[in-house]
Amino acid sequence: MYKPLIRLKNKPLIKIVIENLEELFNEIIVVVKNEEQRSLLEHVLRNKDVVFTLDTSMFRDGPLVAMYTGAMKAR
User: Exposed e or buried b for every residue in 39-56, given b needs 16+ CB within 10 A?
Assistant: First the structure.
């Protein structure tokens, strides 16, 4: 199972995280590895104001690479 979609108290984890971040930030960037992940998350977050970006870095995957990709996309 795709970790962001794991449910806690009947709500996907990604939605819980986004709802908490909305109170703190003007822009939320979600980094995905492929279009399948993007499609799944767009459906779950359809009413949320988030920016999706595809991780196309040449580095190995992982949380630091995703943070780097998100930082490069940030305004």
Answer: ebbeebbeebebebbebe
